Amino acid sequence: MAGVLSMRADIFTMTDQAQSAALTPDAPGGLSHGERAALACRMCRLNREDGLSAHFEALMKQADAPEEVAQIADTSYPGGDAGADKRLDAIIRHTDLATRDAKSVTGGDIAALAAAGISEDDIVRLSQLIAFVNYQVRLVIGLRLMGDLS
User: Fold this and answer.
1) Helices H, strands E: what count in the chain?
2) Whole-angstrom Cα distance, residue 140 to residue 49?
3) CB 43 within 8 A of CB 136
């Protein structure tokens, strides 16, 4: 346990670097900083991780996310108006699926993203965001269990 705790500073530094790369990259591609923060907030809420959710809400505000982007964070929001926004619907569906049950994601789910007009580069970006946020949720839960967070 002492060895793990001594590496804590390195873990936090690397996590901060990964967060910057996942949420506020210099070249965000087809996923804006606001969309990334809203999706991150949504994933935290799906995991019932309210403290981390508040962190990503603040990032949404910093990104000046418009209301139509901010509503992505609401886990009851299913996507675009009556299915009009196929891109957003596909992103939300995939994010929710990968967050709730990552093992059930198949090649067909990735193909659905492409069919909704999401580029291969943006599918990779979305996958990186999903992986990072779910890692961060687990890190926070682990630290809380070790008694480092209240």
Assistant:
1) 8, 0
2) 9
3) no
Dump pLDDT digits (tens) for 97-144.
999 999 999 999 999 999 999 999 999 999 999 999 999 999 888 888
Domain limits of the chain? 31-145
Is 84 a residue whose pLDDT tops 70? Answer: no
Which pair of structure tokens corresponds to residue 83? 């299915």
Tell me the pTM: 0.84
What is the pLDDT, as a whole number, of residue 1? 55
**Which residue bears the tokens 């929001």?**
77
How far, in Å, CA of 128 to CA of 88, rounded? 17
Looking at domain 31-145, does it have CATH number 1.20.1290.10?
yes
The whole-angstrom separation of Cα 44 and Cα 64 is: 20
